[in-house]
Design goal:
The chain is an all-alpha fold and 171 residues long. Helix content is 73%, strand content 0%.
Length: 171
């Protein structure tokens, strides 16, 4: 209609819609869990929110319409979805770190880097998890990977924060 195409969500499954829906459900569950935390009953809600967040993160396969990177109409939604993904992974990884389940946090950050290797926070958190696990060589490899990816894509070095983490690992 009027030169536009629309999709009926009852007839079409769209990964971006599914990602938004599942992540929205996880956020609602988490918010309800925070309310119950006041009464000391947030545990089940938190676990449910984590499960839903993991499901949402698994739905995200990378940049929205990657083949159309130069189409201006895709930029806003692409960045919106990417930022939602980054925040979800960060929350999920942080949860595993707080639970002292560093292997699960490592898996979370490694999976995220396979999808989006330009998010420096993922490298930082992964390096810190490796440090907690006593896996210094893997932390150093992660730092070097970050440096080479950033040099190749941006022509720049890793941030001072990332370098500071590396230095603490080398001490």
């Amino acid at each position: 209609s009027e030169g536009r195409l629309t999709l009926d969500n009852k007839q079409c499954w769209v990964d971006a819609w599914a990602f938004e829906r599942v992540l929205g459900e996880a956020e609602k569950i988490l918010a309800r869990g925070r309310e119950r935390n006041i009464a000391g009953r947030a545990g089940d809600k938190t676990r449910e929110a984590v499960r839903m967040t993991e499901k949402a993160v698994a739905l995200y396969k990378g940049y929205f319409l990657k083949a159309d990177l130069n189409e201006h109409w895709t930029i806003s939604l692409r960045e919106h979805l990417r930022m939602r993904y980054v925040r979800a992974v960060s929350r999920l990884g942080y949860y595993w770190e707080q639970e002292k389940k560093f292997e699960q946090a490592v898996d979370c950050y490694q999976s995220a880097l396979r999808v989006d290797d330009l998010t420096e926070e993922f490298y930082q958190r992964l390096m810190l998890c490796y440090k907690k696990l006593g896996r210094k060589a893997e932390a150093v490899k992660t730092y070097r990977r970050c440096c080479s990816i950033f040099k190749a894509n941006f022509g720049m070095e890793a941030s001072p924060e990332t370098t500071a983490i590396y230095r603490t690992i080398m001490e």
